[in-house]
């Protein structure tokens, strides 16, 4: 999964493989570690109940930035790839779209059977919409939009899609199963009736397009001033976080003023829109807080990379980020199939169990990386750019 799109960045920038920015790979690897922890908590603690369930809920709060972070950085990579070499983007776009088709077909078939949590639900294999389906659709649509719309226009479109999605989610209540399935899959709703798990496509696609603007900044201005772009990421991330904090304060004020009476109608809608925990579908507070944290973190990593700080960690996490698709598929089998099926008893040493699973997956990713490196150096074999 090598993106050959940053070959003319300032010489001080470290490369993780070929000509990739190490900090971007390391940030994506860090987000993937949060995915690991979240799914480890689900696979290990979900069935235990009691105190273990409360621990799982706390760990899920800690790892909530995983989904916004992964979608934001995926969008960033789209904008970066196009901004770096628009004249050669056609070949890259084809590869991105093939990857999107892979996620929607083979990836879906590989992932859904691992979701054993809902095995007792009738037809559960047909009622799970994993995040990879949403990413796959974004990879199909994004390359066409990035060549037709500028960065600001894409970001505006993303915000509009997000707003329309929430409007539809709040005001459209279909009665047929087909229409309700479409609503849950495309726009989402607070309580699912047809699907048992869903990452609604439209709001997440909107956030993906907003992320592509940040990639354009990095691709256009990063040649001359990577540190300047990193500072801009930090300030925008802080601004997003501040908006998230204000919305959270508004949520707590609304709940305190209205209490349990704020149920139904506009009051409940305001409560959902301002809740920091509103993930399904993703709320503005949730995305502002966690997306801002990821963008600020990326800016910090870019500046650390320039100064030569944290390089051992960045190289270690960068390997995960470089092969994020393989890592994402692999962890479903490790946690949702392996750990869940083992039915391990609870132990206070669970962090060591988690670290062991990370070590196992890192070793497999390292072997995959070595294989790809050998493929790249064979005569007549070019890097895939993905």
From TrEMBL:
Regions crossing the membrane:
21-41, 61-81, 125-146, 153-173, 202-221, 233-254, 285-304, 325-342, 348-368
* Domain (Heparan-alpha-glucosaminide N-acetyltransferase catalytic) ranges: 20-220
Keyword Methyltransferase applies:
no
- List the keywords (alphabetical): Membrane, Transmembrane, Transmembrane helix
One Pfam family matching this protein: HGSNAT_cat
InterPro entries documented for this protein:
HGSNAT_cat
tRNA-binding is among the record's keywords: no
Q: Superkingdom of the source? A: Bacteria
The record's annotation in PANTHER family points to: HEPARAN-ALPHA-GLUCOSAMINIDE N-ACETYLTRANSFERASE CATALYTIC DOMAIN-CONTAINING PROTEIN, MEMBRANE PROTEIN-LIKE PROTEIN
This chain belongs to which protein, by name?
DUF1624 domain-containing protein
């Amino acid at each position: 999964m090598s993106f050959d799109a940053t070959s003319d960045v300032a010489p001080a920038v470290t490369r993780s493989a070929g000509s990739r920015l190490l900090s971007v790979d390391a940030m994506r690897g860090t987000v993937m570690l949060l995915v690991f922890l979240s799914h480890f908590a689900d696979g290990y603690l979900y069935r235990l109940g009691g105190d273990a369930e409360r621990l799982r809920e706390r760990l899920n709060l800690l790892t909530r930035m995983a989904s916004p972070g992964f979608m934001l950085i995926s969008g960033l990579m789209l904008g970066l790839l196009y901004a770096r070499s628009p004249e050669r983007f056609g070949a890259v776009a084809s590869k991105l779209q093939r990857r999107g088709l892979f996620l929607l077909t083979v990836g879906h078939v590989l992932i859904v059977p691992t979701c054993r949590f809902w095995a007792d639900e009738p037809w559960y294999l047909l009622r799970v919409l994993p995040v990879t389906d949403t990413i796959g659709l974004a990879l199909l649509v994004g390359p066409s939009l990035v060549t037709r719309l500028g960065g600001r226009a894409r970001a505006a479109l993303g915000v509009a899609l997000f707003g329309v999605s929430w409007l539809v989610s709040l005001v459209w209540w279909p009665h047929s199963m087909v229409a309700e399935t479409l609503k849950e899959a495309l726009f989402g709703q607070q309580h699912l009736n047809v699907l048992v798990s869903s990452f609604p496509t439209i709001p997440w696609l909107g956030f993906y397009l907003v992320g592509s603007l940040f990639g354009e900044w990095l691709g256009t201005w990063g040649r001359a001033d990577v540190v300047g772009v990193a500072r801009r990421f930090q300030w925008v991330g802080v601004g997003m976080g501040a908006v998230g904090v204000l919305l959270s304060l508004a949520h707590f004020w609304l709940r305190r003023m209205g209490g349990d009476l704020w149920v139904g109608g506009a009051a409940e809608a305001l409560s959902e829109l301002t809740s920091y925990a509103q993930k399904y579908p993703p709320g503005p507070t949730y995305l502002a807080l966690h997306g801002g944290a990821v963008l600020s973190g990326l800016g910090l990593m870019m500046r650390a990379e320039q100064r030569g700080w944290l390089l051992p960690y960045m190289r270690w996490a960068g390997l995960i980020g470089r092969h994020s698709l393989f890592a994402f598929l692999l962890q479903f089998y490790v946690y949702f199939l392996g750990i869940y099926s083992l039915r391990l008893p609870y132990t206070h040493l669970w962090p060591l169990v988690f670290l062991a699973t990370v070590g196992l997956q890192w070793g497999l990713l390292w072997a995959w990386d070595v294989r790809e490196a050998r493929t790249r150096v064979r005569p007549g074999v070019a890097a895939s750019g993905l």
